[in-house]
Structure formats: structure tokens, C-alpha cells
Amino acid sequence: MKMAILPILTYSSIIAVPLFLFIYAISSIVGATYMYVPIEALLGISLAIFCISNGMEIFVYKGRTKNILRLSRTEVDQTKSIPAHLAGSKSTKTITLNIKRFNSKEKQLELHKYKVQVDKFTSVLTALLKVKSHSDGTLSIRCSCNMGICGSCGMEVNGKPVLACETNVLKNLKNGDEVEISPMTGHPMIKDLVTDFDDFFSKHISVDPYLDRKNKGEQYAAKEIYNQSNGDINKFLPYSYCIMCGLCLDACPVVNTNPEFAGPQALSQGYRYYADSRDQMGAARLEIMNTPEMVWGCEFAGACSDACPKGVDPAGAIQLLKFEVIKNSLMGNASDNK
Ligand code: SF4
Ligand code: FES
């Protein structure tokens, strides 16, 4: 059926397209819009033949003013995208998860080994949830979205801070069939793979992470439309993608040796709000940053930017913030220099 329909489609398109262009040219000259009607019908029929021959369904919704045509592919063969050598049950592999679980009573990490069956699509989070469902229900994990958005599944895989839901398990095998999983050591541990984010959020709050206006009433009820150019938006947009997963803090060597240091997440958010043209805190915001616990604590190791799953580049933001702090010290009021 498909083989018979395709030539019809091809021939109808060959006729329809030049005919459409010809009638378009004539109708533009004589101003006769009704001349479009037969050619539109012909194009519609060609499109319908194409869709049906490619396994699509056509839905026509009749609205009050116009018809809307929506196409949907039917009978999508899910196995098509899986290479033949991995399709079916043979594609799975049994691996060992070496999980360092934090024992909250003993206050120490304990190694537990679990065998789990995975395939080439399995993420570390899915493997852990399989363990929790089928092997050991006492295993504690924090997760929510399973799509790299909520930032709650941060942990270390083979010693590297990652989002478990975005980390492929087979791509991280060691010694043939093992993966090491542990909680983030840059945050206090609560139980197993779950860490405490209270300190992390306190540091975030310490940089006043909101748009501050001189007229405080505007923070609750806008008085005008605060237009921004593309240039204005580009100054802060890359830093606004932070999902507060805490991986950068875990990666930062300074935070791990000096707990007082605010860390890359808080400082990058400090820059995000400073760089926003709608913010009017200006110099006061830079004064908060001008301490050894804030920007001057950063030694520009860059590990935070390597770890960030959202490409926020906190290390870069901190250096920009240092520059603004120096500029403000030398030239005066920062809000005038934005
Ligand atoms: S800056 Fe990146 S790594 Fe750090 S908390 Fe935000 S999203 Fe996570
Ligand atoms: S579960 Fe939401 S980021 Fe991983």
C-alpha cells in the first residue's frame, strides 16, 4: 500500500508546487484570492496521502473561526531506536552497586553491595530505585523529577558529584561491572545517600537572592513594566539556570576545608541579582560580597563549574563579582556603573 501511494504523492507534489507558484503569481497580479482554493485543496490531499502512507493519523478540529489540522504518528515501533544487539532480554547486564551508606547512629559510612539488572538506558537513580524496590527497602535516596530539574538527587558516583537521574550507569562502570555510589561529602549527611541542605540554603539566603527595589512596595506590586534589552537579559540569564542541586559546593575544595566560605552557588546567585538591571541594591550588594567568606574566599579552582549540570559557571560569576567589588571600591556607586 505504501509503495503504491508514494508515487502518487510524488506526482501530485510535482504538479502541485509549480501550479501553486503559477497561480500565486497570477493571483498577485489580478488580486483574485479565490484562485488559491483549488490548489490549496490539492496540496491538502497530497499532505493527507503523505501522512497516511507514513502511519500518521489526521485529526481535524473545527473551531469557531478556523480548522486546525493536527498530525500524530501512530504505531511507533519502540524497538526501532534500539540497536539489534541490545534489543530484548539479552541487552540487560547484571552489575554491582557499591553503595556507601551513611549510618546515622554510628555516624560513619558503611559499604553495601547490591546486584541489579540494568540496560544501556538505565540511570544511576533508576538502578538505586530498583534496589530500593526489590532488594533493600531501607535504602534512603532523595529524588523527585527524574529529569534533571528539581536538583534533589545529587550524590557522588565514582567520587564525582553528579545528578543520579542524569548519569548513565553503564557508562560509569569500574572493574568491569561495578559502580561506586556515595553521599555528597561537601554537605552534612543525614542517612544513606541523603544529605542536609540547611547550611546550603542559609548561604543562599545570605546573598539576598531577590530583586531589591528602592521603593519596597514594588517588590510586592510592580509599578511599571520593567523593560530589558537582550543585552540586559544576557548579563544574568546564564546564572539564573541554577537548580540548587549543591553539586558545585560538593566539588569546591575551599568549602570542604573552610565551612564559613559561602561557596559557589550562593556567590553565583549574588552575581545573578547584581547583574540584573531591575535590581537596585547596587553597592550595598557588593559590600556584602566584599569579605573573606564571600568572594575573597574563592581560589578559582574551577571545580564548581566543571561539576555544574546546568552550565551555570559559578567560578566565572565569582570572578566577575570580584571585578565589580574592586571597581566599586575604586570608582564609587556600583548601581551607577552597571
Ligand atoms: S550552580 Fe550549578 S552545581 Fe551549583 S547548585 Fe546551581 S545548578 Fe547546582
Ligand atoms: S530527580 Fe530531579 S534532578 Fe534528579
> How many helices?
11
**CATH homologous superfamily name of the largest domain?**
Alpha-helical ferredoxin
Major beta sheet summary: 5 strands, mixed
Order of helices and strands: HHEEEEHEEEEEHHHHHHHH
- The domain count comes to 3
As a percent range, the share of strand residues is 15-25%
Distance between the termini: 66 Å
Helix percentage: 25-40%
Identify the quaternary structure here.
Answer: single chain
**CATH C-level name of the largest domain:** Mainly Alpha
Q: What's the overall geometry?
A: flat
Structural class: alpha+beta
Per the CATH scheme, the topology name of the largest domain is Fumarate Reductase Iron-sulfur Protein, Chain B, domain 2
Give me the count of strands: 9
Strand order of the largest sheet: 4-3-7-5-6
CATH architecture of the largest domain: Orthogonal Bundle
Mean pLDDT: 84
Radius of gyration: 29 Å
Q: List the ligand species.
A: iron/sulfur cluster, FE2/S2 (inorganic) cluster
Query: Stretches where pLDDT falls below 50 for ≥5 residues?
Result: 1-6, 55-83
Describe the overall structure.
The chain has 338 residues and is an alpha+beta fold. The chain folds into three domains: 2-84, no CATH class; 92-195, Ubiquitin-like (UB roll), CATH 3.10.20; 198-331, Alpha-helical ferredoxin (Fumarate Reductase Iron-sulfur Protein, Chain B, domain 2, Orthogonal Bundle), CATH 1.10.1060. 37% of the residues lie in helices and 16% in strands. The protein has eleven helices and nine strands. The protein has helices spanning 2-30, 36-53, 124-134, 198-205, 230-236, 247-251, 253-257, 263-274, 283-289, 303-307, 314-331, and strands at residues 56-62, 67-73, 93-103, 108-118, 154-157, 160-163, 178-182, 189-191, 194-195. Strands 4-3-7-5-6 form a five-stranded mixed β-sheet. The protein has a two-stranded antiparallel ribbon with strand order 1-2. A two-stranded antiparallel ribbon has the order 8-9. β3 (93-103) and β4 (108-118) form a beta hairpin. α4 (198-205) packs parallel to α8 (263-274). The longest helix is centred in the first third of the chain and has 29 residues, at 2-30. The protein is flat, with a radius of gyration of 29 Å. The chain starts with a helix and ends in a 7-residue tail after the last helix. Mean pLDDT is 84; it is low at 1-6 and 55-83. The structure holds iron/sulfur cluster and FE2/S2 (inorganic) cluster (FES). Residues 242-248, 264-265, 268, 307-308, 310, 312, 314 line the site of iron/sulfur cluster. Iron/sulfur cluster binds at residues 242-248, 264-265, 268, 307-308, 310, 312, 314.
